Amino acid sequence: MHPPKLIDIGLNLGHDSFDHDRAEVLRSAQHAGVVQMILTGTSVEASQKAAELAASHPGVLYSTAGVHPHDAHSYGVDTSVRLHSLAMQPHVVAIGETGLDFYRNLSTPAQQEHAFAEQLQLAAMIGLPVFMHEREAHDRFMAILRQHRDRLKRAVLHCFTGTRAELFAYLDLDLYIGITGWVCDERRGQHLQALLPHIPPDRLLLETDAPYLLPRTIKPKPHTRRNEPANLPWVLAKVSECLQKPAAEIAATTTSNARVFFDLRC
């Protein structure tokens, strides 16, 4: 029996941990049923690399173009122009990863807010969906997003790990919700497991955020902490368990959702 078809909506395939075996990682992912993958752009340079990787695997890999809040300090006068140029490539399917992260503050809050607003404006102007990140910055994130939401085509809050109130606030703005291997953590993920039934089926998306957030449910335990897109079925299995629905049903729903969200033709 073939594994259910899945789409990983967020992974960092350009990360240097994949430099020695990137082709094998892709083969393993496809063997595991991950038929399409969206590569996350986190800076202009990372977005360029993601776009190049996507171009080399048409119909399988796609990418986003954006500046992560950690790198917001690099958002210069020409950054939006450079991102716009990348976004014109047919395999670039969203703006991001953008948003706010007040947990680490690797860029100042002011720098993050400026970069976030600029990228929301860019997405609205060119008609691409937005791939977003938020950590310990919910109120400011929502205030900025509300100013732009009506002009945005679609938007996803990736790697959701927030509270019930935050989830409902995102859903009130008609956001999609990305679920990672965090849900597989028997310690940190319990509150997320309880929130899964509150996510409308047509707003649910699955992702690995590889090489980060390795699912703790993997058996046998892997010899490395590096996550891979081939591990997405473990996220699916935990979501299936929490929702008490067949994995095949959730796979079909989330795959359809991803194709709608990113305008993937097949």
Secondary-structure topology with pairs:
Blueprint: E1 6-11, H1 22-31, E2 34-39, H2 44-55, E3 61-65, H3 79-87, E4 92-101, H4 109-126, E5 130-135, H5 138-148, E6 155-157, H6 164-172, E7 176-179, H7 190-195, E8 204-206, H8 232-243, H9 247-262
Parallel strand pairs: 1-2, 2-3, 3-4, 4-5, 5-6, 6-7, 7-8
Helix pairs in contact: 2-3, 3-4, 4-5
Could you provide a short overview of the structure?
The chain is α/β, with parallel strands linked by helices and 266 residues long.
Question: What this model shows, in words?
Answer:
The protein is α/β, with parallel strands linked by helices and 266 residues long. Helix content is 39%, strand content 16%. The chain contains nine helices and eight strands. It has helices at residues 22-31, 44-55, 79-87, 109-126, 138-148, 164-172, 190-195, 232-243, 247-262; strands at residues 6-11, 34-39, 61-65, 92-101, 130-135, 155-157, 176-179, 204-206. An eight-stranded parallel β-sheet has the order 1-2-3-4-5-6-7-8. The radius of gyration is 17 Å and the shape is globular. The relative contact order is 0.15. The mean pLDDT is 97.
How many individual domains? 1
CATH fold node name: TIM Barrel
The largest β sheet comes out as: 8 strands, parallel
- Portion of residues in beta strands equals 15-25%
Roughly how many Å is the radius of gyration? 17 Å
Low-confidence stretches: none
